[in-house]
Design brief:
The structure is a single chain. The chain has 135 residues and is of the alpha+beta class. The chain has a domain at 7-95: Double Stranded RNA Binding Domain. It has 4 helices and 3 strands. A 3-stranded antiparallel sheet has the order 1-2-3. The longest helix has 21 residues, at 108-128. The protein is elongated. The termini are far apart.
Length: 135
């Protein structure tokens, strides 16, 4: 399922970031934090909202807001685009429903091989034991 967060539901905050840039980094706000209110989003169904709240519980704060920051680039615009891509990917991954696992049995041949190996190993260990004088 391909899901993209509507732009009007995203809010942005720019702040100064560390990293390369010299004096420039101290004067410009290039770090971008994207916030999306998952709890009050109109673009989600009830089931999608519940799934996101469960799967992203460690990333969503107590008010129901998902925050993603990007500060890798020197440009605020590039960081903004990167943060939007990242938040969309996080949401897409969280909404993906995993395929149910199909139970499988080992093939008969592998079971037979395992048992034969166990018997061989047992026989080897049996032969190592000292011989009883009574027998």
């Amino acid at each position: 399922m391909l899901f993209t967060i509507p732009q009007d539901e995203l809010s942005f905050r720019a702040s100064s970031s560390g990293g390369p840039g010299g004096q420039h980094v101290n004067r410009t706000a290039t770090k971008v934090t994207v916030m999306w209110d998952v709890a009050n989003s109109t673009s989600l169904s009830h089931a999608q909202r519940r799934r996101l709240m469960n799967r992203l519980a460690n990333r969503i704060d107590t008010t129901g807001v998902l925050r993603v920051a990007a500060a890798e680039r020197r440009s605020q615009l590039q960081n903004r685009e990167m943060a939007i891509r990242r938040i969309n990917q996080i949401v897409r991954d969280a909404l993906r429903v995993p395929k149910p696992r199909k139970k499988t049995r080992p093939p008969k041949r592998s079971i037979e091989q395992r048992l034969a190996t166990k018997k061989r190993r047992s026989a080897t260990k049996e032969k190592r034991k000292p011989v009883d004088a009574d027998e």
